[in-house]
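Give me structure tokens for this 323-residue protein.
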Amino acid sequence: MGRKSLILLLLLFGLLVFEIIVFAPKEIGLDGRSDSNLNNNSIEEIGDQTKKIVQGIHVVEAKGESIDWELWADRADQTSTQSLWQLEDVKSKFYGVQKVEYTVTGDSGQVSEDQKKMKVQGKVLTRSTSGFSFESDQVVYNSEAKQLESPDNIKMKGPKDTNGDRLILTGRNLVADLKTNTILIGEDVSAQKVVKKDQVVKIKSKKARFNNEKKTARFIGNVVIDYDSMRITGPKAEFKYRKGSDVIESMVVEGGARVTDLDKWATSDKLSVFFADERYVLQGKPRVVQDNDELRGDKIVFLEGGKKVRVENARAKFEPEEE
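Here you go.
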């Protein structure tokens, strides 16, 4: 082989290697979408740096045959001094247990070359196949813990019930755990839900936890509940759904409940509220006080929204009426 032929062959080989490294998305961990081609990928010189640009990407992160997440973006770019790819117009899908999926969309985002870190930001909307959705400024995916995290303010909506009503909630520091199918809001929780006709339950608490599998919503820490003319307070409250539906059936306040109404107040270790028939059950040292009259028993049950009362082993104290 002549010297000129050898030089030409080496030059062609060098160009081939350059094209594979720079232009082939698979070599940088990004698969080109089916509608993209190599002409949509480019490299730019920025001073003493280079910028790799990919138009239209689709990334799949999988362990064995199980897919953890997928990512789509209109554009991805990375300079030679960065370890993260910068993304535009992002959509990602995360797969949890019991076939629950979370779809996250946002204006921009970031993903690391090893695909272990991902962030979506800018008018982020997250929807789950279990019916929950929340709006936030950013969502970060923790691949080791398999959690979606939104550290700032969030607005969340629960699944629609048979009447089309949703739980509406605001708070901070949301964590959606894909391994347990739970959603935790860690700070400043404020929520409301229509439970019957036009009756609305309003709730404030430090934290809230939703379990999609068990169909429960739990509010924790300095819980304050306003319902009808009553205010109910306690350390924790749990709302339970009717089996097989998204209709809230009952509420239980435990650890020391206090109820105040227009003309009376009550305390007990546990309070159960059944919304359908407006029944309130006080258990564990129940006590009801109205004016100077006091009623105690093993269990006190208010029926028809408080119009009737039933007491087990009643013990009453009445102040005589003044003449």
